[in-house]
Amino acid sequence: FSKHDSAINAQTFVQILVLGWLKKKDGSLNELAHAARDLGLRVTGSALHERMGQAAVVLLAGVLKRTLEVLQKPCPLPLEVLKKFSGIYITDSTQIALPKQMVSIFRGNKANSMLKLHVTWDYLNGNLAALEMEEGRSPDQKCQLHVSHAHAGTLQLFDLGYFKQEYLRDIDQQAAYFVCRYQ
Prior knowledge:
The chain is of the alpha/beta class. The chain is 33% helix and 21% strand. It is built from six helices and five strands, in the order ααααβββαβαβ. Strands 3-2-1-4-5 form a five-stranded mixed β-sheet, sandwiched between helices. Helix 1 crosses helix 2 (29-36). It is elongated.
């Protein structure tokens, strides 16, 4: 991430962004630089701007991946009613706006840059089961996480964005259950 010795290395860059945006979710680069002072760092908004590029995306994707690996550790829920299912998986997505400079990597609608995350949560064990990242303009119907986690005796929960009759057939053929609004 860093090509030369600087106050902003990979670790401090992540700390500045995460802690700064926890402090103010839509903080500007200058506000993030100000928040860096809490970490004992003197950086400028323009110094942060210089590091906002493909290397930063790769770094943050790696941090997200590692964080999600930690979240995959089981934390079972004591709900007897749901124990008749061998697994309960909830699949949904969210979009995250990115700087316009990232449009060549993560295209959104029109000229904006968006990242879409599809997440499948293992409800019975209380942990993350799967994550897919793609460009923001990709429709939810392309994602098959809810189908790939459908095994005999599991329950799949997903919204209308994931509805596709073929997927419902595939889930049923695997002797799994699903709850989704019918389109």
